[in-house]
Specification:
The structure is a single chain. This protein is of the alpha/beta class. 31% of the residues lie in helices and 24% in strands. It has 6 helices and 13 strands. The strands form 2 sheets. It has a 7-stranded parallel beta sheet, with helices on both faces. Strands 1, 2, 3, 4, 5 and 6 form a 6-stranded mixed beta sheet that branches. Helix 2 links the parallel strand 7 and strand 8 (110-114). Helix 2 (95-106) runs parallel beside helix 6 and helix 4 (160-168) packs parallel to helix 5 (207-215). The longest helix has 21 residues, at 125-145. The two termini are 17 Å apart. The mean pLDDT is 94.
Length: 249
Protein backbone atom coordinates (compact mmCIF):
# COMPACT_ATOMS: atom_id res chain seq x y z
CA UNK A 1 0.00 0.00 0.00
CA UNK A 2 1.29 3.43 -0.88
CA UNK A 3 -1.41 5.64 0.67
CA UNK A 4 -0.85 6.93 4.22
CA UNK A 5 -2.42 4.83 6.97
CA UNK A 6 -4.52 6.13 9.85
CA UNK A 7 -5.85 4.18 12.80
CA UNK A 8 -9.51 4.14 13.81
CA UNK A 9 -11.31 2.26 16.57
CA UNK A 10 -13.77 0.67 14.15
CA UNK A 11 -14.44 0.67 10.42
CA UNK A 12 -18.17 0.16 10.79
CA UNK A 13 -19.96 3.01 9.01
CA UNK A 14 -23.15 4.36 10.57
CA UNK A 15 -26.39 3.99 8.57
CA UNK A 16 -26.90 6.80 6.10
CA UNK A 17 -23.22 7.75 6.04
CA UNK A 18 -23.04 7.30 2.27
CA UNK A 19 -19.59 5.80 2.54
CA UNK A 20 -18.17 8.83 4.34
CA UNK A 21 -16.06 8.78 7.48
CA UNK A 22 -14.86 11.64 9.67
CA UNK A 23 -11.33 11.23 10.99
CA UNK A 24 -10.83 13.52 13.97
CA UNK A 25 -8.90 13.63 17.24
CA UNK A 26 -5.13 13.00 17.18
CA UNK A 27 -5.32 11.04 13.92
CA UNK A 28 -7.35 13.79 12.25
CA UNK A 29 -4.87 16.40 13.46
CA UNK A 30 -1.97 14.36 12.09
CA UNK A 31 -3.72 13.98 8.73
CA UNK A 32 -4.69 17.66 8.40
CA UNK A 33 -1.96 19.58 10.20
CA UNK A 34 1.08 17.30 9.79
CA UNK A 35 0.50 15.33 6.60
CA UNK A 36 -1.48 18.25 5.13
CA UNK A 37 -3.72 15.98 3.09
CA UNK A 38 -5.95 17.63 0.52
CA UNK A 39 -9.12 16.64 -1.37
CA UNK A 40 -8.58 13.91 -3.92
CA UNK A 41 -5.70 12.18 -2.12
CA UNK A 42 -5.92 8.50 -1.22
CA UNK A 43 -5.87 7.25 2.38
CA UNK A 44 -6.15 3.93 4.16
CA UNK A 45 -8.02 3.52 7.43
CA UNK A 46 -7.32 0.51 9.63
CA UNK A 47 -8.09 -0.80 13.09
CA UNK A 48 -4.59 -2.27 13.32
CA UNK A 49 -6.08 -5.75 13.67
CA UNK A 50 -6.08 -6.62 9.97
CA UNK A 51 -9.19 -4.73 8.85
CA UNK A 52 -8.70 -1.86 6.42
CA UNK A 53 -10.50 0.27 3.85
CA UNK A 54 -9.37 2.60 1.11
CA UNK A 55 -10.89 6.03 0.73
CA UNK A 56 -10.43 9.43 -0.84
CA UNK A 57 -10.12 12.71 1.01
CA UNK A 58 -13.25 14.77 0.49
CA UNK A 59 -12.36 17.71 2.71
CA UNK A 60 -9.89 18.91 5.35
CA UNK A 61 -11.70 21.03 7.94
CA UNK A 62 -10.00 23.12 10.58
CA UNK A 63 -6.87 21.64 12.11
CA UNK A 64 -8.03 18.16 13.05
CA UNK A 65 -10.95 16.99 10.94
CA UNK A 66 -10.59 14.99 7.74
CA UNK A 67 -13.65 13.86 5.79
CA UNK A 68 -13.02 10.65 3.85
CA UNK A 69 -15.39 9.42 1.14
CA UNK A 70 -15.87 6.28 -0.98
CA UNK A 71 -15.33 3.93 1.97
CA UNK A 72 -17.52 1.21 0.56
CA UNK A 73 -15.79 -2.06 1.36
CA UNK A 74 -13.76 -3.24 4.34
CA UNK A 75 -11.03 -5.77 3.64
CA UNK A 76 -9.34 -8.17 6.04
CA UNK A 77 -5.70 -9.10 5.75
CA UNK A 78 -5.27 -12.66 7.02
CA UNK A 79 -2.74 -13.31 9.74
CA UNK A 80 0.60 -14.26 8.22
CA UNK A 81 1.96 -17.78 8.60
CA UNK A 82 4.13 -18.86 10.17
CA UNK A 83 3.57 -16.37 12.96
CA UNK A 84 6.84 -14.93 14.27
CA UNK A 85 7.18 -13.87 17.91
CA UNK A 86 10.34 -12.28 19.30
CA UNK A 87 10.95 -12.40 23.04
CA UNK A 88 12.94 -9.23 23.62
CA UNK A 89 15.02 -8.80 26.78
CA UNK A 90 14.76 -5.27 28.16
CA UNK A 91 17.51 -3.06 26.68
CA UNK A 92 18.98 0.02 28.32
CA UNK A 93 17.42 3.45 27.85
CA UNK A 94 15.29 4.07 24.81
CA UNK A 95 16.82 1.22 22.81
CA UNK A 96 13.77 -0.84 23.68
CA UNK A 97 11.59 1.47 21.61
CA UNK A 98 14.17 1.26 18.82
CA UNK A 99 13.94 -2.53 18.85
CA UNK A 100 10.13 -2.44 18.77
CA UNK A 101 10.12 0.14 15.99
CA UNK A 102 12.43 -1.75 13.65
CA UNK A 103 10.89 -5.16 14.37
CA UNK A 104 7.51 -3.69 13.52
CA UNK A 105 8.86 -2.25 10.29
CA UNK A 106 10.24 -5.59 9.09
CA UNK A 107 7.02 -7.45 9.91
CA UNK A 108 7.34 -9.24 13.27
CA UNK A 109 3.90 -10.40 14.47
CA UNK A 110 4.33 -10.29 18.25
CA UNK A 111 6.87 -8.92 20.72
CA UNK A 112 7.15 -10.12 24.31
CA UNK A 113 9.23 -8.00 26.72
CA UNK A 114 11.34 -10.22 28.97
CA UNK A 115 12.85 -9.44 32.37
CA UNK A 116 16.02 -11.49 31.93
CA UNK A 117 18.26 -12.02 34.96
CA UNK A 118 21.05 -9.96 33.43
CA UNK A 119 18.89 -7.03 32.32
CA UNK A 120 20.19 -3.72 33.61
CA UNK A 121 16.80 -2.13 33.02
CA UNK A 122 13.99 -3.30 35.27
CA UNK A 123 10.28 -2.57 34.85
CA UNK A 124 8.68 -2.13 38.25
CA UNK A 125 5.49 -0.45 39.40
CA UNK A 126 4.36 2.69 37.64
CA UNK A 127 7.62 2.95 35.72
CA UNK A 128 7.06 -0.48 34.25
CA UNK A 129 3.52 0.36 33.16
CA UNK A 130 4.74 3.52 31.44
CA UNK A 131 7.54 1.66 29.69
CA UNK A 132 5.14 -1.00 28.40
CA UNK A 133 2.77 1.73 27.19
CA UNK A 134 5.69 3.31 25.28
CA UNK A 135 6.48 0.00 23.59
CA UNK A 136 2.86 -0.42 22.54
CA UNK A 137 2.60 3.17 21.30
CA UNK A 138 5.84 2.68 19.36
CA UNK A 139 4.46 -0.47 17.70
CA UNK A 140 1.30 1.42 16.74
CA UNK A 141 3.14 4.38 15.23
CA UNK A 142 5.69 2.20 13.45
CA UNK A 143 2.84 0.09 12.10
CA UNK A 144 1.26 3.18 10.58
CA UNK A 145 4.56 4.48 9.22
CA UNK A 146 5.38 1.15 7.55
CA UNK A 147 1.85 0.94 6.08
CA UNK A 148 0.86 -2.17 8.00
CA UNK A 149 -2.78 -2.91 8.71
CA UNK A 150 -2.09 -5.65 11.24
CA UNK A 151 0.12 -4.25 13.98
CA UNK A 152 2.30 -6.46 16.19
CA UNK A 153 0.96 -7.47 19.56
CA UNK A 154 3.16 -6.32 22.45
CA UNK A 155 2.57 -8.66 25.36
CA UNK A 156 2.89 -8.20 29.09
CA UNK A 157 6.31 -8.34 30.73
CA UNK A 158 7.31 -12.01 30.98
CA UNK A 159 9.44 -13.90 33.45
CA UNK A 160 11.88 -16.62 32.42
CA UNK A 161 9.34 -19.28 33.40
CA UNK A 162 6.66 -17.65 31.26
CA UNK A 163 9.06 -17.44 28.32
CA UNK A 164 9.80 -21.16 28.72
CA UNK A 165 6.08 -21.91 28.57
CA UNK A 166 5.80 -19.87 25.38
CA UNK A 167 8.73 -21.71 23.84
CA UNK A 168 7.30 -25.10 24.78
CA UNK A 169 4.17 -24.40 22.74
CA UNK A 170 5.99 -23.20 19.62
CA UNK A 171 6.50 -25.11 16.38
CA UNK A 172 10.03 -23.71 16.28
CA UNK A 173 11.76 -22.37 19.37
CA UNK A 174 15.20 -20.82 19.41
CA UNK A 175 17.53 -18.62 21.44
CA UNK A 176 20.03 -16.33 19.77
CA UNK A 177 23.35 -17.13 21.41
CA UNK A 178 26.98 -17.27 20.34
CA UNK A 179 27.27 -20.79 21.78
CA UNK A 180 24.89 -22.18 19.16
CA UNK A 181 26.30 -24.95 16.99
CA UNK A 182 23.75 -24.28 14.25
CA UNK A 183 23.35 -21.06 12.29
CA UNK A 184 19.84 -19.65 12.24
CA UNK A 185 20.27 -19.32 8.48
CA UNK A 186 20.39 -23.12 8.16
CA UNK A 187 17.80 -24.08 10.80
CA UNK A 188 14.86 -26.20 9.70
CA UNK A 189 11.82 -23.92 9.88
CA UNK A 190 8.09 -24.69 9.76
CA UNK A 191 5.90 -23.34 6.97
CA UNK A 192 3.00 -22.74 9.35
CA UNK A 193 2.34 -22.49 13.06
CA UNK A 194 4.41 -20.42 15.47
CA UNK A 195 8.07 -19.42 15.54
CA UNK A 196 9.36 -18.04 18.85
CA UNK A 197 12.85 -16.55 19.06
CA UNK A 198 14.52 -15.25 22.22
CA UNK A 199 16.87 -12.24 22.17
CA UNK A 200 18.93 -11.81 25.32
CA UNK A 201 20.05 -8.64 27.12
CA UNK A 202 23.35 -6.79 26.84
CA UNK A 203 24.86 -9.11 29.45
CA UNK A 204 23.72 -12.20 27.59
CA UNK A 205 21.41 -15.07 28.44
CA UNK A 206 22.54 -16.73 31.67
CA UNK A 207 23.49 -20.44 31.75
CA UNK A 208 20.48 -21.07 33.98
CA UNK A 209 18.14 -19.44 31.47
CA UNK A 210 19.72 -21.33 28.58
CA UNK A 211 19.15 -24.59 30.46
CA UNK A 212 15.54 -23.65 31.27
CA UNK A 213 14.81 -22.79 27.64
CA UNK A 214 16.56 -25.94 26.41
CA UNK A 215 14.25 -28.00 28.61
CA UNK A 216 11.35 -26.24 26.88
CA UNK A 217 12.73 -27.32 23.48
CA UNK A 218 14.57 -24.15 22.46
CA UNK A 219 17.95 -24.69 20.83
CA UNK A 220 20.67 -22.04 20.79
CA UNK A 221 21.37 -20.58 17.34
CA UNK A 222 24.06 -18.21 16.19
CA UNK A 223 23.12 -15.39 13.85
CA UNK A 224 26.43 -14.47 12.27
CA UNK A 225 30.13 -13.91 12.93
CA UNK A 226 29.55 -10.61 14.72
CA UNK A 227 27.70 -10.01 17.98
CA UNK A 228 24.74 -7.67 17.54
CA UNK A 229 23.30 -5.42 20.20
CA UNK A 230 20.10 -6.64 21.78
CA UNK A 231 18.19 -3.76 20.17
CA UNK A 232 19.15 -4.84 16.65
CA UNK A 233 19.44 -8.63 16.91
CA UNK A 234 15.69 -9.25 16.82
CA UNK A 235 15.27 -7.16 13.69
CA UNK A 236 18.15 -8.88 11.88
CA UNK A 237 16.94 -12.33 12.90
CA UNK A 238 13.36 -11.46 12.02
CA UNK A 239 14.36 -10.38 8.52
CA UNK A 240 16.21 -13.66 8.08
CA UNK A 241 13.20 -15.69 9.22
CA UNK A 242 10.80 -13.71 7.03
CA UNK A 243 12.99 -14.44 4.03
CA UNK A 244 13.53 -18.12 4.75
CA UNK A 245 9.86 -18.84 5.46
CA UNK A 246 8.80 -17.25 2.18
CA UNK A 247 6.93 -14.37 3.75
CA UNK A 248 9.33 -12.03 1.99
CA UNK A 249 9.09 -13.99 -1.22
Amino acid sequence: MTAPVFVVASLELPPGSGGEFVLDGPEGRHAVSVKRLRPGEDVVLTDGRGHWAEGIVKAAEGKDRLVVMDLESVHEEPAARPRITVVQALPKGDRGELAVETMTEVGIDAIVPWAASRCITQWKGERGLKALAKWRATAREAGKQSRRVRFPEVGELATGKQVAELLAGADFAGVLHESGDVALASAELPTAGEIVLVVGPEGGVSPEELALFAQAGAQAYRLGPSVLRTSTAGTAAGALLLTRTGRWG
